[in-house]
Write a sequence for this structure.
């Protein structure tokens, strides 16, 4: 049986004295994670095997939790700059989310210059959503023109959180921020919508890598920020298998919950069933026995 | 999206809004508004505290407005996309944020037994608490307020606009008025004080208490009954049938006038036996006098693979409803069809002749058929 490979990289020093992610440590972690996925190859080689040089790459982040619980610029910009250098041109990488306001509130400085790393939201002037809905299985949505038209390849740089409805939000669900109507897809624990959205060609055919930011994890009562149930875990989870990456993220949340004496998501009746739907759709491995987890501390 | 709109933009914007509601080939005799009163521009969300919600621990809230009962954490929005929890308080984001504004004939709503021939200042905000795959107004109903152009039009300005335009009626319509409840309610209250009537065009997905309160300030409600089948509601509407049936009963039990529209979608909700069951239910539960409109579907939004409803299907369903004893059954979105007109349930004579949204003649006097004196249900003056 083919096993999907997932890397978990950690550091005891991922945060600075100001309680912010340390960009240098972040980059070391990401590079190590990519090397673990690659086997023998260097991180740069591995990226280039996934994404051809000269491509336009989207780095979809999650800023709904603003500064308290989002993919912070200290993390995403460090990764984006390195990816830009690896791919040959900074300006070919765009860090993006739904709105400029969310990005700014999270601490990002917007930029649309093609000469530098670009950072903007779908609501940026001249961007917006496509005008014809994509109809795919149960999905009927307008896609952000960033995902649909501006990038050839995509990395989901997601934040790991417990989610009251979905169970877990991580790399797959991050793409809810790529459509105009995510509020319509939270019924029935977001199942099958998370999986079916990812299965849309505009996502599935462009997605190359999941990077889950588990530096600080909301393991209970998410996705809103509740400091009493947020833990500094100081890890990243990386995989080319988007389902396996999320399953490992789920496992991490369950471990945190167990350690804190909380019931499992299954016991709370909200395990992320969409992951099994995603597996049935052929998007990746949802069974832990089919996932090879490589773990290393930096 | 920024709402930096000028008069020309708004004209265009309003025309787009208007064109959304053209179902047949005959242009609607409606016009967009682009003048009085001066329309202030406003992209900002309203952040007016919502009504009908429960505060929960840890800054969570539970919305009590509609049968979804969305339970939301901080910074989360409900299914409707226009109500948000911010630090444990729940806000409507669309209070006075109008996304479509037109003067329409009341027949376009459609209301056929409510002040026929009158003009209705018709407005909507973005958002909806359902997700119909066949939505005819999806460009506003399935959007968040940031994704459409909004104008600031608080309740006072709505009422003034209606007066200036000579509209005796304000219609809350196009998207789903339930989701802009606070705006609709406050506007209705003001309008009523000024002697204007308020009508609501809704799918009826609302909880009993907010509906009861609303029924105290409006004069008529049109309910879109999407099907008489829970599976259809689940699969194509993303809602439940039973709350809508309860809404229909609640309105019929109030002094507010009620009309029902059934959009007939080929192969999906046009089963004659199901329609017969629905008509029997209507007659038993609310009586035979509330108008029922069978409207023609046109391919739209996520259902583009089906043809427009054959007129023969609409005629067949109308015949079934008449056989089941409903008194006023119409064919909609087929301009010029005899089923657009009203016939006296006693003598059978033509008492309101319509062509599209135009009234050609009315043979009703003091609410009675001019030919036989039969009382005709409705609000006529």
């Amino acid at each position: 049986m083919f096993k999907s490979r997932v890397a978990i990289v950690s550091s005891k020093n991922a945060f600075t004295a100001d309680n912010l992610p340390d960009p240098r440590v972040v980059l070391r972690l990401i590079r190590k994670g990519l090397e673990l996925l690659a086997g023998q190859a260097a991180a740069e080689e591995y990226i280039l095997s996934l994404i051809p040089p000269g491509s336009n790459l989207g780095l979809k982040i999650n800023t709904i939790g603003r500064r308290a619980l989002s993919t912070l610029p200290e993390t995403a910009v460090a990764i984006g700059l390195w990816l830009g250098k690896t791919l040959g041109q900074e300006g070919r990488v765009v860090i993006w989310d739904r709105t400029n306001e969310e990005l700014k509130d999270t601490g990002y400085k917007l930029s649309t210059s093609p000469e530098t790393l670009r950072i903007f939201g779908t609501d940026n002037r001249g961007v917006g959503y496509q005008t014809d809905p994509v109809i795919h299985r149960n999905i009927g949505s307008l896609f952000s023109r960033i995902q649909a038209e501006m990038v050839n390849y995509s990395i989901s740089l997601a934040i790991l959180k417990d989610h009251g409805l979905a169970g877990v939000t991580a790399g797959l669900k991050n793409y809810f921020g790529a459509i105009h109507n995510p509020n319509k897809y939270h019924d029935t624990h977001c199942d099958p919508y998370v999986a079916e959205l990812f299965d849309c060609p505009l996502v599935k055919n462009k997605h190359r890598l999941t990077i889950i930011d588990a530096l600080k994890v909301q393991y209970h009562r998410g996705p809103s920020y509740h400091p009493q149930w947020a833990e500094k875990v100081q890890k990243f989870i990386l995989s080319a298998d988007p389902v396996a990456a999320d399953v490992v993220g789920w496992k991490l949340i369950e471990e945190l919950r167990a350690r804190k004496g909380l019931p499992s998501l299954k016991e709370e009746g909200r395990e992320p069933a969409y992951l099994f739907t995603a597996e049935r759709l052929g998007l990746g491995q949802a069974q832990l026995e089919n996932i090879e987890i490589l773990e290393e501390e930096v | 999206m920024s709402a930096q709109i000028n008069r020309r933009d708004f004209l265009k914007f309003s025309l787009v809004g208007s064109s959304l509601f053209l179902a047949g080939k005959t242009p609607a005799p409606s016009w967009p508004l682009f003048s009085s009163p001066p329309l202030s521009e406003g992209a900002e969300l309203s952040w007016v505290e919502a009504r009908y919600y429960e505060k929960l621990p840890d800054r969570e809230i539970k919305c009590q407005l509609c049968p979804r009962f969305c339970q939301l954490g901080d910074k989360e929005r409900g299914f409707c996309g226009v109500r948000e929890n911010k630090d444990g308080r729940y806000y409507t984001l669309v209070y006075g944020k109008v996304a479509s504004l037109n003067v329409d004939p009341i027949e376009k709503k459609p209301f056929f037994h409510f002040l026929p021939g009158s003009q209705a200042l018709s407005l909507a905000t973005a958002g909806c608490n359902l997700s119909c795959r066949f939505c005819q107004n999806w460009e506003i109903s399935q959007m968040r307020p940031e994704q459409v152009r909004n104008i600031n039009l608080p309740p006072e300005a709505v009422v003034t606009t209606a007066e200036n335009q000579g509209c005796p009626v304000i219609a809350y319509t196009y998207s789903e008025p339930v989701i802009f409840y606070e705006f609709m309610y406050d506007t209705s209250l003001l309008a009523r004080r000024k002697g204007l009537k308020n009508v609501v065009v809704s799918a009826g997905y609302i909880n009993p208490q907010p509906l009861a309160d609303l029924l105290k300030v409006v004069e008529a409600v049109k309910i879109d009954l999407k099907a008489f089948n829970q599976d259809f509601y689940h699969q194509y509407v993303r809602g439940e049938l039973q709350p809508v049936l309860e809404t229909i009963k609640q309105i019929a039990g109030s002094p507010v006038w009620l009309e029902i529209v059934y959009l007939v979608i080929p192969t999906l909700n046009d089963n004659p036996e199901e329609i017969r069951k629905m008509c029997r239910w209507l007659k038993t539960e609310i009586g035979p006098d509330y108008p029922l409109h069978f409207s023609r579907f046109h391919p739209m939004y996520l259902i583009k693979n089906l043809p427009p409803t054959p007129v023969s299907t609409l005629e067949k369903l109308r015949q079934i409803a008449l056989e089941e004893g409903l008194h006023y059954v119409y064919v909609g979105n087929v301009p010029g069809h005899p089923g657009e007109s009203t016939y006296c349930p006693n003598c059978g004579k033509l008492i309101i002749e319509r062509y599209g949204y135009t009234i050609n003649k009315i043979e009703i006097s003091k609410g009675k058929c001019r030919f036989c004196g039969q009382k005709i249900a409705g609000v006529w003056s």
Chain A has one domain: 4-297. The two ends of chain A are 30 Å apart (CA to CA).
